[in-house]
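QUALITY CONTROL LOG
STEP: pairwise intake check
CHECKER ROLE: data steward
CRITERIA: each record must contain a sequence immediately followed by its structure tokens, with no blank fields

ENTRY 1 OF 2
RESULT FIELD BELOW
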Amino acid sequence: MSARKRYPSDLSDERWALIEPVITAWKAAHPSVSGHQGRYEMREIVNAILYQSRTGCQWDYLPHDLPPRSATYYYFAKWRDDGTDQTIHDLLRWQVRERAGRSEDPILVVLDTQSVHAAVNVPAGTTGKDPAKKVPGRKRGLAVDVLGLVIAVVVLAASAHENRAGTVLLDRVAAQTATVSKALVDQGFKNAVVAHGATLGIDVEIVERNPAERGFVPQAKRWVVERTYGILMLHRRLVRDYESRPTSSESRVYWAMTDVIARRLTDQTTPTWRDA
């Protein structure tokens, strides 16, 4: 790294050590045709991605002492398309679970969705209006384990029914883990999700809300997904959907959670933007 002033989002040496082996292996598998090693350090590329994740700035507003848009977006898009972003995230997630005395992959997951407004640059064909929450934009669906760690993510138009989000999430959970046998969902998900889960060997339970309760009341086990959404909101790039492609939105979730769990593994924290 150059001798520039550090940003709060920058990787520490300890956190970079967790990510660096995957990046180094990726670089070795993708050599330049000309043999050129690249002008920018890979650590600085990741720092630029994390800076944008935490601050929510536009590509052209990346600070001049970080790699420019051309270089940062090149790697962001490459890692999004070949799954390197998820590979990094999953390797760290496994370490967090093992550190907590759990197996690498969970048995139970919790599913939920969140509708967020879309920026003006987002293609209309990938957005819609959530009829229940009256939110125009996109719907972000998560499957998390009991620690609140992300197992799968999907981004759809906000107009998509919960059943659609639920079935896609279950498909991704089943494709990525062979251990999940139970899923908890709220009343927004219907019997179609339960039936689809059965075809995958996953018992889907719809957790009923107590009709006597008013306002937000945390539900046992299901509350962890709400906490995860709250943690993600500390990353300003996720407060609104700015991405042209839904797959880029999904990648943003993986990068945000990579930042969170890398800090958890190294016992490091950073001030939130609310404290700034």
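ENTRY 2 OF 2
RESULT FIELD BELOW
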Amino acid sequence: MRFAILLAALPACAMAQDFNYGDRNTDFEPAFPEQFRAPITPSGVELDLEVIASDLVHPWGIATLPDADGWLVTERPGRLRHVLSDGSVSEPIGGVPEVHAVDQGGLLDVALGPDFETDRMVYLTYSKPMGDGLSATAAARGTLSDDLSALEDVEDIFVQDPPDDTAKHYGSRIVFPGDGTAFVTTGEHSSMETRVYAQDLDKTYGKVIRINLDGSTPEDNPYVGQDDAIDTIWSYGHRNIQGAALDADGTLWTIEHGPKGGDELNRPEPGLNYGWPVISYGKRYSGQPIGSGDAVQEGMEQPVYFWDPVIAPGGMTFHSGDTFAEWNGDALIGSLYPGGVVRLAFDDEGHVVEEERLLRDQGRIRDVEIQDDGSFLVITDFESGSLIHVRPSPES
């Protein structure tokens, strides 16, 4: 049954007005004015929150099923659930790959394939156990049965190389640009030993990966035919990309966790180096500098935008639809710390020109999913997490 819980309407304007960015961890100057601390801009919208389902265990990803058939939701311990529009939650869907459910590892993103309505293909990302305590970011696909009880003919289409024994910084999101390919994002497993792999083209740590839907390599990838480079790499020098989305023009945007300060919004382009762990707008938790100690270096790309202090980003999406129509084209980003949803608005050149903090009292928001009407869903990443539908208050 639906959890008919209407939380008190939350005035977005009040939440934004009493927000300030807080003290910085570093003193790096932004490379251009729009790169940092855009004006806090209240939208004046009051929000109604309805809990559709609760008691989900560390939910991580959401995919909306067609024909008002509800949603697929991943739980990090390794379960894929069907949540119906009436709030009922299925038993675990069968056929999901075994996951390395340790620390940050487990079952991560879920997405419907671009031809789901004809082939029923569902894509997952997860931490794949590789034996002897090792694991790697992986992406798999399988066919969802007509009764939604199982994934069939499941196969891996990407496995990060090499595996590692640190169960952190897996990434990972999967998105489809509509040209028969998929982008898969990875992390660099966090350790001092492995973070440098983000700069290595013979490893898939800290990368945006581009593959065909069956896992083969697109012929126009930037490193096809290059010796000592993995040909599925699209861009490199990333830390831990946990958000990825396509804007209305089909351009890929990603958002990644920085260290202490320095969360980044990027627009990855083929063959470019985004700097980690050589440059960063953050610093190590010990207070020591990252890499060169600089935030800018020739041959390394600058983020479109960065945060200090961090927002600890989860999933992201771009808004479209009649509901919250004034936000169309804005990015909505889940925040794990301090929590809530971050809204960013852009100018015609792709610069961030305003920021707003929403749903701040909901805590760790792991993913955001726009519905056809422009309302949106969020999931909260807790031991007893929730799937929440967000609409405008009738009074707004």
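INTAKE CHECK: passed for both entries
DESCRIPTIVE NOTE, ENTRY 2: Residues 1-17 have pLDDT under 50 and may be disordered.
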